[in-house]
Write a structure and sequence with these properties.
88 residues
Length: 88
């Protein structure tokens, strides 16, 4: 996954500029991002504060680790079921 040039703090700052009255097109040009990126940020971070965005990032990382653990456990269970199904 490509790493963003902007941190969550910067993104939230840009969105606050939009709430203050700047248009999306102006902000996109000023910060060098596409309109699509701006609207994606707005859908994800709209109304958030910096602390909430940091908490979201921590939760997403934790969720990613838990999903990986679950997949590994499911693979182990599947392998054990196959082994038990075979006649020795």
């Amino acid at each position: 996954m490509k790493r963003s040039r902007f941190s969550e703090e910067q993104i939230i700052g840009i969105l606050k500029e939009h709430q203050a009255g700047m248009s999306a097109a102006e902000l996109s040009r000023k910060h060098g991002v596409s309109d699509g990126t701006f609207y994606k940020w707005r859908s994800k971070y709209s109304g958030m504060e910096v602390s909430e965005a940091k908490r979201l990032k921590v939760l997403e990382e934790e969720n990613k680790k838990l999903k990986k653990l679950l997949a590994e456990q499911m693979l182990d269970v599947s392998t054990l079921k196959e082994m038990l199904g075979k006649n020795f």
